[in-house]
Amino acid sequence: MQTELSKKLGVEHAIFGFTPFPAVAAAISRAGGFGVLGAVRYTAPDDLKRDLDWVHAHTDGKPYGLDVVMPAKKVEAKGNQTLSEADVEAMIPAGHREFVQATLAKHGVPELAEGEASGWRITGWMEQVARSQLDVAFDYPIKLLANALGSPPADVIERAHAHGILVAALAGSARHARKHADAGIDIVVAQGYEAGGHTGEIASMVLTPDAVEAVAPLPVLAAGGIGSGEQIAAALALGAQGVWTGSIWLTTTEADLHSRKLTEKLLAATSSDTVRSRALTGKPARQLRTEWTDAWDDPAGPGALPMPLQGLLVAEAVSRIQKYEVDALLGTPVGQIVGRMNAERSVRGVFDELTRGFERAIDRINRIAGR
Description:
The chain has 14 helices and eleven strands. The two termini are about 20 Å apart. Helix content is about 40%, strand content about 15%. By secondary structure, it is α/β, with parallel strands linked by helices. Mean pLDDT is about 90; it is low at about 75-80. The protein is globular, with a radius of gyration of 20 Å.
């Protein structure tokens, strides 16, 4: 399952696996793919350094990468000064805070213990936080830097290239893909509507060949709705040089969701049980549909705030929901491929299934072609 891009990066299979879990990222690389650790949840540089140390020590010398979230538009004060986290917090309307508290009270969600910090305080959507993550990351031999919200700033691309690091950016349309190519990135990740997390409105079957044509000869990775070897074969047939996967790793034995109930919800979910909602971050992100997403998507509610305000607003609420495993509200970003995630397997087990499915697809095509 090799392509020109996978050979360039020195990986056996052109399967790129995004994950927030260091153990999963390392296992993906050890299995012959390319593990990409998501950095957005790291608020302290030392925490990211600790986990990159662990990943580096457990990849058996195989390549790995990092995914950051640097919004194309940042929240700024007058005069273009960068705002602090406290400044951004102060921009959140009181009515939105009241809506959060009322929704939690309706479902009887307990408070966190006195002095207990939110475990889900993601500030990595703020550019200054992402830049502090990069200050750590560039001390490691990462081979790929991906940005989940468009092209990184020009100086970040230049800095990555100076370290010999390829830069990838996610795109939801051919127009976005061309903008990334013009910005100087090396790889376009064409993420279709089916994908988990931030995603656009064009399905993978349409988006992948459009992106391939739009940025040729830049390599394109297909993302969204990919959870079988047959789907990988289809992506490569459409011109992609690999696949970008994320959701399928959530129910691996190496993943650490910190909630058995959430794992069980994922295993029981069908492909119809997700929704694109602004409830989590302020941008449309596919996730499990819950009464929490329903509340934010209800026209009678106040509506989600723009990024990064929404993420800061709901941080403590999400921590409380997760800690107390409030079933009606408990969710996570995940793609429509969740309908196929019906058993817990190791990362190696998932890879074995992917490679077998890929071989079946190639054999089927060869028979059709009379070879």
